[in-house]
Amino acid sequence: MPASKPRILLLPDIDWVLIPGGEFVYQQGERRTLPPFRIARYPVTNVQYQTFIDAGGYDDDRWWSGLERPEPAASRWPQANRPRTNVNAYEAVAFTRWLSAQFRYAVRLPHEEEWERAARGSDGREYPWGNSYESGRANIDERGDNRGFRLVSSAHIAASATVARDRRPRFAIREGGAKMAREHPVRTRFASGA
């Protein structure tokens, strides 16, 4: 019997964005302070999460200690670069534990204050450009016919966001609006095959 070839595992490429520390507006105007942190610029994609599955992530007890382990569910969107859906909080935690071991630095889900700071900037704005919606400024199709749309709120993508401490970002830092969704749903359109 010939020897099997070693399996090559390609790790997910995650674009970490530095969110500066300091005071920020939290929820309805309360001022809070956070240290600097890094958060993924984009939600975890199908192909990034599939790497965890293909690496045996659902079979390895190390990632599931103290967690309920479901069977992986198919994502709502099959395209590789779309956000991964149908992942519960336990799966998201197991994924971050696996990422931490692969990257050799701590990766975890953001807590509520980090999420809000990343999404709203330090001044608590509703949108990256300010507090009122401006047509043409968001990455959405504003035709109003709802073709190819999905209402996306922070609840839809929170489980797929990750935070890394003490990690240098590879690209430019953008403050605020990193994951604009918060309380107001945003219609997001994805190009076919994206």
From TrEMBL:
Leader sequence residues: none
- Which InterPro entries does the record match to this protein? CTDL_fold, Sulfatase_Mod_Factor_Kinase, SUMF_dom, SUMF_sf
What SUPFAM superfamilies does the record tag this protein with?
A: C-type lectin-like
State a single Pfam family of this protein: FGE-sulfatase
Q: Where is the Sulfatase-modifying factor enzyme-like domain?
A: 15-139
Query: What's the protein here called?
Result: Sulfatase-modifying factor enzyme-like domain-containing protein
